[in-house]
Specification:
41 strands; elongated; nine-stranded mixed β-sheet; 9 helices
Length: 522
């Protein structure tokens, strides 16, 4: 690593800290800035380092291996492209660039030239976040349902970009890393108080294919400093508070929600401190860039990661510009292959339709067929020889056992339960006594409901949260309670039908033949 030489382009607010850390590891060869007075001050501090006014000079220097770019975001693309074309490894402060097409161009260029292209998402290198990621990946938190991040302060106010672009990239990067997926929906709200075109406060809401949700609250108009990331799993909850002393920065809360008689009961436990060895995130980030330059290893925050964060930023900005309209992302209809998360397990002879997504810690046994555009959330188990239709959504912690068939457009809520043996005993083998369960097209099975085996759930029926189904359910029926009983009728669109049996949302009309039969009027 002693042979690696770095030039930092941009010696302003961010650049000065990068300069300090690259000098600390003995890799700083040149500082480039367009302000002569700035360079004069740095020359006093770093007399052995070259001071350069023109970035073309450092790009043509054959002794320089890597370029660190800490200039305004609108200059990133041009500088990064020139550096890559000059054969230099490149690190760019966040955001990588402002345009997704430009990011893809840089990714291809770096790949073609076999060069490192890394983006500065600093908190990915914070020892506390690294430990938090280890806890999440090991399954100690359980399935992650919700994440929120607050980054608040009364601090330096920038006029060239809003607070979303200034600081939310860190939080977006951490959230995407913890969940291992990209959001499908983004909604952002904001307030412009000091400048009519620049948001000072923003709240960004993210919805993920697995069913997880997240929100990010950032503001530079806040009475006190808060930098907090909260991760809510179904086993434990974690809080990373970067304003606390080091020994208190990461806390685990083994709180749980237990279910008693279909009612959620919170169960609190004592908080646990997590021991993390102290180190400086920026120093670790700089060292990581040098390590990747030397080894050719893909950076933890490579350009692909930068592109994922940029997609969320652009979608958030679009939502802000369009009065908090919901923005869909990752909806490319031209190429929509199935996706299986790296922690999911698929046995042999499993068929998955295009567009289907299978998320963290799920397990699909052999002989199972899953249709197109389905979504299987975290910790989903699918037994052998199960058939799941198209466009089904199976939320976290659901097991679809052998003998269960889901037709198209079925929704299975979080932690709902199927059975396949009517009277199981641990000491009696009864797998030859399976009773088949069929869930027909468009049915919804609410959170924590139970479907006793051997029954048919009618098309477009809705089973309420916590209900226990012990008999066949008619088409369009609304079922609640234990045992479940019909309390009304549902429209195909999901609205509860009034006594007139004419839907107030879609105006569809129905006819009740008897107390157990409803038909849609053509």
């Amino acid at each position: 690593m002693n042979d690696l030489n770095i030039a930092v382009i941009g010696a302003g607010y961010l650049g000065k800290n990068l300069i300090c850390n690259y000098d600390r590891v003995g890799a700083l060869k040149a500082i480039c800035d367009t302000d002569l007075d700035t360079l004069s001050k740095f020359k006093e501090q770093y007399p052995a380092v070259e001071m350069v006014l023109d970035h073309a000079t450092v790009l043509s220097d054959q002794d320089i291996n890597g370029i660190v770019i800490a200039t305004p975001a609108e200059t990133h693309f041009t500088l990064a492209k020139e550096a890559l074309l000059a054969g230099k490894h490149v690190y760019v402060e966040k955001p990588l660039v402002l345009n997704e097409g430009e990011t893809e161009e840089l990714i291809k260029l770096a790949k073609d030239k076999k060069l490192i292209l890394m983006v500065g998402h600093l908190l990915q290198f914070h020892p506390v976040f690294i430990k938090l990621s280890e806890l999440a990946n090991s399954g100690e938190l359980g399935c992650i349902n919700y994440i929120y991040s607050n980054r608040l302060n009364l601090r330096k106010i920038r006029r060239e970009k809003n607070f979303l672009w200034s600081f939310a990239p860190h939080d977006i990067s951490m959230i995407l890393s913890l969940l291992g997926e990209e959001p499908e929906k983004v909604i952002a709200t904001g307030g412009n108080f000091l400048h009519k075109n620049i948001a000072d406060v923003t709240t960004t809401h993210l919805e993920f294919p697995s069913g997880a949700k997240a929100h990010i609250f950032v503001s530079w108009l806040h009475p006190y400093k808060e930098q907090k990331l909260v991760v809510v799993g179904d086993n434990k909850m974690a809080v990373f508070d970067d304003t606390l002393p080091w020994e208190d920065k990461l806390m685990l809360y083994p709180h749980k929600v237990e279910w008693e008689n279909s009612n959620p009961i919170p169960s609190k436990a004592e908080a646990e401190k997590v021991v993390v060895l102290q180190d400086e995130p920026l120093f670790l980030e700089c060292k990581h860039f040098l390590d990747c330059m030397e080894s050719g290893e893909t950076p933890r925050t490579d350009a692909e990661e930068g592109l994922r964060v940029l997609k969320v930023l652009n979608a958030s900005q679009k939502s802000l510009n369009e009065k908090s309209r919901e923005v869909l992302i990752n909806t490319d209809s031209k190429a929509n292959p199935a996706y299986v998360h790296e922690t999911a397990v698929l046995d042999s002879n499993v068929k998955i339709g295009e567009g289907t997504k299978i998320w963290l810690f799920s397990h699909i046994l052999g002989g199972t067929t899953i249709g197109k555009d389905c979504n299987l959330g975290q910790n989903v188990f699918v037994g052998s020889s199960v058939t799941i239709g198209n466009r089904c959504k199976i939320q976290n912690n659901v097991s679809v056992y052998k003998g269960v068939t889901l037709e198209d457009d079925v929704f299975c809520g979080p932690s709902m339960v199927f059975t396949n043996v009517f009277n199981p005993r641990a000491h009696v083998a009864r797998m030859n006594e399976l009773r088949e369960t069929i869930v027909k097209k468009g049915a919804t099975l609410g959170a924590n409901c139970t479907i006793v085996c051997g029954n048919i759930i009618g098309k477009y029926a809705l089973i309420g949260a916590g209900a226990v189904v012990t008999k066949n359910v008619p088409d369009f029926a609304l079922m609640v309670g234990n045992p479940a009983r019909r309390t009304g009728w549902m429209c195909k669109c999901g609205e509860i039908l009034p006594n007139s049996l004419e839907c107030i949302r879609c105006n569809s009309k129905y006819k009740e033949k008897d107390e157990n039969t409803l038909t849609l009027c053509e």
